[in-house]
Amino acid sequence: MEPLLAYENRKESRTPKELALLNDNEDVIQMEGLIMRERILENGNKELCYPLKYREAFFADHGKYDVCIGLWTRAMEMAMLCDDSITKDLERFVNVFGEMARKARNPSLQYMERFLSLNHRTCDGNTLFHLAAWYETQIYDDFAGRLRRVCYLSCVETVRFIIDSGGLVNAVNNETNTPLHLATSYRPSPDGLRVLREVLEALLNGGAHADMVNKNRKTAMDVAETDEARSIQIYLEHIASSVRDTDDVIANIPNSPNDPEHNDIQKAFCYLKRGMEESF
């Protein structure tokens, strides 16, 4: 069996002497057991999934998020080979990202990019992006109740990290709703308006198309639950459009680096752009 990223690229011990070297490291012994189990049972066996999920939960609980994500990804690969639903797994997955974001503990891009490339979806067709932006995503108390104390969805930190990892911001689910559609369906409390604004800002800055329609021919603006969501979206789109227009002006200023007037004009437009960006 070839080394796998999920198992930290470890190779299975081949001799009693190699096994004896693992004696004082519980984590390595457990990883060795997972490798042996997969070699014996082979892909597509449902008995592979539970031990993987158990260990990833353990690593998440102890803050070892890269190992957690690697094992979780492998468990979902096994589940898909067995035609098992992974809806709850994805929901738990985004919960963990919410916890990580609030601890400023981002996983390595290598793990995240690999996970996103698999295009895992719930039974409703929701991607990790949809779940991070949606207030109705369930929160599971898998880790001694700590998730519910620290994780609140939608989660702007998770949305931003998925964008940085190359997630598809305009992915559609079975209802052809984008993450932006789900985000604007939030009816926030007064305290939740800031979160809604930041999530919409992250999505629009990340390339979300506000004009995309779902199967009912409705845009994110059409399905917005509150006037606040509509006004925030209009405002952010206006600012983003103004910034793009200013970029075009700056790009088209004639290149005359020795002309003081040219430098003053360019500085003025750059200052204007910075002011608009800060107004977000």
From TrEMBL:
Residues of the signal peptide: none
Superkingdom as given in the UniProt entry: Eukaryota
Keywords from the UniProt entry: ANK repeat, Repeat
ANK repeat residue intervals: 175-215
Matches recorded under PROSITE patterns: ANK_REPEAT
Keyword Magnesium (UniProt): no
Record protein name field: Ankyrin repeat protein
Upper lineage: Eukaryota, Metazoa, Cnidaria, Anthozoa, Hexacorallia
